[in-house]
Amino acid sequence: MDGGFDSMLEYVFFDDGLRERFEGFLAERGVEYSRSDDELGGVVAVSEDLDDAVMDAIDEQYDQILSAQEELLEETGDALEKNAAGIRIELTDGRPCMVRLEPKLLGKTLQALSLEEVEQLVRQVAHCVEHPDDSPLCHTPPSKA
């Protein structure tokens, strides 16, 4: 399906079969989506204006597919080196952002960390870039209580 949406959430897939599984999930629920390909892989976009319950179901399904994608990446570490890789995060102002990563580095990182932990690390780095703090590491910032 190809739909034009004003405000979109994008879901990235490194495997066509997993993207098709996600698209089937959306189609079963009558959720309109658009699909495209970029240097990172397959992208499926849905409107941000969906009902909260529907968005929660979509996010839960995507998380399950990410786990399958992580297993696939671990099984095919050699193939990962030939592809592009990235983590999609949301910036402080709400804009989505693709953080492009060296595929070989991501593959090595996934040997030690879960995909969720890598995403958390990338989000934390992005937050630090958006809100720089050049104070010494031994300096503890004041509590925001």
What brief labels describe this structure?
single chain; 145 residues; alpha+beta; two-stranded antiparallel ribbon; globular
Structure report:
The protein is of the alpha+beta class and 145 residues long. 46% of the residues lie in helices and 21% in strands. The protein is built from 5 helices and 5 strands. The strands form 2 sheets. It has a 3-stranded antiparallel β-sheet with strand order 1-3-2, covered by helices on one side. A two-stranded antiparallel ribbon has the order 4-5. α1 runs antiparallel to α2 (52-75). The longest helix is centred in the middle third of the chain and has 24 residues, at 52-75. The radius of gyration is 17 Å and the shape is globular. The relative contact order is 0.13.
Write the topology of this structure.
Layout: E1 8-13, H1 16-28, E2 33-38, E3 41-47, H2 52-75, H3 77-80, E4 85-90, E5 96-101, H4 103-112, H5 115-130
Antiparallel strand pairs: 1-3, 2-3, 4-5
